[in-house]
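User: Reviewer 2 asked us to show a designed sequence for the structure in our supplementary figure. I'm pasting the structure tokens here. Could you produce the per-position amino acids so we can include them in the response letter?
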């Protein structure tokens, strides 16, 4: 007794995905029904090709989830029939035990179909709802919430009307503290003063460090290195200096770019 193998209603409905194999072309339900009735040679059936074609059919978004589950069950039964051929004849399972197992599987399948039908009624990701960039944590809210102590708020309002209250300074403009760092203009002037025809490392163009404490001195040195590098790049862009570096993270050297002489310029013009 075979329970749940290739339901004839499915074969008649013909709503299962098509399968194209060597020597067979038809629906998946028809293929399983032919395998159940032993009208085809299961030993020669390329099950891997059937599974690959089923995976392609399952990518269709408009097919209900329950129907996709039925297709998977059909292929599972096909694999079960194929696996029985691998068992020796003397070790074939008992018919009564097999009937009980098939009955249990049918009940499990009906429960799975009911669950799939319930899932079909819910919003599905990519159809009714769409994912955002980041997952939303449960129990969080992006709305602003403010908690105000009413008593403290009233006391603060009353303090504004007291005659002896200190006036609120609304005229002073906040200005951040000035830090005397090494500028790009200073670095440009310093490079032009020390520039020579020989290749000199970038560190030779750094200015002397001022007499500052540790924190201010470290910040000043960082600005000196950055400004010297920026000034060297600007001078190289203007054609004043030539930058050279042997490789990645190697020392950067600067040299004066030789200006063409008047004779060379006249020859080029001629």
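Assistant: Here is a per-position design you can include in the supplement:
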């Amino acid at each position: 007794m075979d329970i749940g193998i290739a339901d004839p209603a499915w074969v008649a409905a013909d709503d299962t995905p098509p399968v194209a194999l060597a020597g067979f072309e038809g629906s998946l339900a028809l293929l399983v029904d032919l395998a159940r009735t032993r009208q085809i040679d299961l030993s020669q059936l390329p099950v891997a090709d059937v599974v690959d074609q089923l995976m392609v059919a399952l990518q269709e978004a408009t097919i209900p989830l329950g129907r996709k589950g039925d297709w998977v069950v059909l292929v599972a039964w096909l694999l079960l029939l194929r696996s029985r051929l691998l068992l020796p004849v003397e070790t074939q399972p008992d018919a009564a035990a097999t009937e009980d197992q098939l009955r249990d599987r049918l009940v499990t399948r009906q429960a799975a179909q009911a669950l799939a039908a319930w899932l079909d009624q819910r919003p599905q990701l990519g159809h009714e709802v769409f994912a955002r960039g980041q997952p939303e944590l449960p129990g969080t809210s992006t709305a602003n919430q403010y908690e105000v102590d009413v008593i403290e708020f009233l006391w603060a309002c009353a303090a504004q009307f007291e005659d002896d209250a200190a006036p609120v300074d609304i005229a002073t403009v906040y200005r951040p503290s000035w830090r005397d760092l090494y500028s790009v203009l200073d670095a440009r002037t310093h490079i032009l003063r020390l520039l020579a025809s020989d290749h000199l490392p970038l560190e030779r163009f750094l200015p002397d460090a001022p007499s500052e404490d540790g924190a201010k001195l470290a910040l000043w040195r960082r600005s000196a290195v950055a400004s010297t590098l920026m000034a060297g790049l600007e001078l190289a862009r203007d054609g004043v200096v030539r930058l050279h570096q042997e490789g990645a993270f190697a020392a950067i050297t600067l040299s004066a770019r030789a200006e063409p002489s008047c004779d060379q310029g006249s020859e080029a013009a001629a």
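For the response letter, you might also mention the following. DSSP finds nine helices and five strands in the chain. The domain at 184-269 is CATH 1.10.10.580 (Arc Repressor Mutant, subunit A).
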